[in-house]
Specification:
Layout lengths: L3 E7 L6 H9 L6 E8 L5 H12 L3 E6 L4 H11 L4 E4 L5 E2 L3 H11 L3 E11 L5 E3 L13 H6 L10 E3 L1 H6 L10 H10 L3 E13 L9 H17 L5 H21 L3 H14 L4 H32 L1
Parallel strand pairs: 1-2, 1-4, 2-3, 6-9
Antiparallel strand pairs: 4-8, 5-9, 6-7, 6-8
Helix pairs in contact: 8-9, 9-10, 9-11, 10-11
Length: about 300
């Protein structure tokens, strides 16, 4: 029996799927299987996977189901998995060669940890490196359920591995959710287990203009659903709820601000301050958005200096 099951939900991602599978094949850790769940694709996903079944044989499972959405596809893959550990990988993302080796070692070192994750690099549709996001590791390991809930901790799906036994305690992905179902799962695991963090880039996350995260209205709906769901069942205090909502609206403001939607950004930042007026970040971003027209008039005179300072 394989020790690690890499679960790959696939929906019309045949163009990227070979790279995802090859990234698992190149792992330095070899005790794995791949479980691909074809979630009702209408492209040639079946053919792509078929070419690998002949090569990998029982190290690759292929399961087809009518389209039911990402959480359901992941749950189907989990139910078909045979490994002690479940490693998530979307069909358009890539594992770095030591991802499984480092993740298994982290869980073996700490039997109290139910889940391990790490850093990512972001790539574009063609596979070119875009950036390597800087994250604050203070909130990423140990007993971090409150940080997952409040959005201080961001766990990247394509780096996550967890013990399959967590499912019997925390449950499966919530199939009623159409976004934020991953954070919902991590929170439920973190309620019962510690979280381990590998301070290395474990995976490459592919940016897409069609990603669900681009739909800010949809994301807001399910982000609010998540925090209110756990507050209503008594898992989080009202203070924690307001801190989480403040962070949700600040991130929403950031998304608008970066796309020149200043009025929408100010509205979101105002909501963030209303929910959590004690957050310096919330207050700072509201003031910055309010002063943006004035700052824009000042920039031309000092643009050269500012540019050089950024380059340094």
């Amino acid at each position: 029996m394989p020790r690690v099951s890499v679960i790959v939900p696939a929906y019309n991602a045949a163009v990227y799927l070979p790279d995802a599978i090859e990234s698992v094949i190149r792992q330095t850790y070899t005790d794995w299987e791949i479980v691909v769940v074809d979630d009702g694709s209408v492209d040639n996903t079946r053919t792509v996977v078929g070419s690998y079944i002949a090569r990998l044989q029982d190290k690759l499972q292929y399961v087809y189901q009518p389209n039911r959405g990402l959480p359901a596809a992941r749950n189907t893959a989990i139910r078909h998995s045979r490994g002690e550990f479940i490693a998530l990988l979307d069909a358009d993302d890539l594992c770095m060669p030591r991802r499984l080796e480092l993740s298994v070692a982290a869980l073996d070192r700490n039997p109290r940890a139910g889940l391990v994750h790490g850093r990512i690099a972001r790539i574009d549709a063609a596979g070119n490196l875009v950036d390597q996001p800087v994250i604050d590791s203070r909130y990423l390991s140990g007993n971090i359920k409150r940080h997952i809930y409040s959005r201080r901790a961001h766990l990247s799906c394509c780096t996550v591995m967890y013990r399959k036994e967590c499912i019997s305690i925390a449950g499966y992905f919530d199939e009623t959710m159409r976004a934020t179902e991953d954070r919902d799962m991590w929170f439920r695991i973190a309620e019962k287990f510690e979280v381990a963090f590998v301070d290395e880039i474990l995976s490459q996350y592919r940016l897409s203009p069609f990603a669900m995260s681009k739909d800010l209205g949809r994301m807001l709906t399910w982000q609010r659903f998540f925090v209110e769901k756990h507050h209503q069942r008594g898992a989080c205090s009202r203070l924690a709820l307001h801190q989480a909502l403040g962070n949700i609206y600040r991130e929403r403001g950031d998304a608008f601000f970066s796309s020149s939607g200043r009025r929408s950004a100010m509205s979101a930042y105002l909501r963030a301050v209303m929910y959590n007026p004690f957050s310096a970040k919330n207050v700072y971003m509201l003031i910055r958005a309010a002063l943006e027209p004035l700052l824009a008039r000042v920039r031309p005179a000092s643009g050269g200096v500012a540019t050089r300072a950024r380059q340094i």
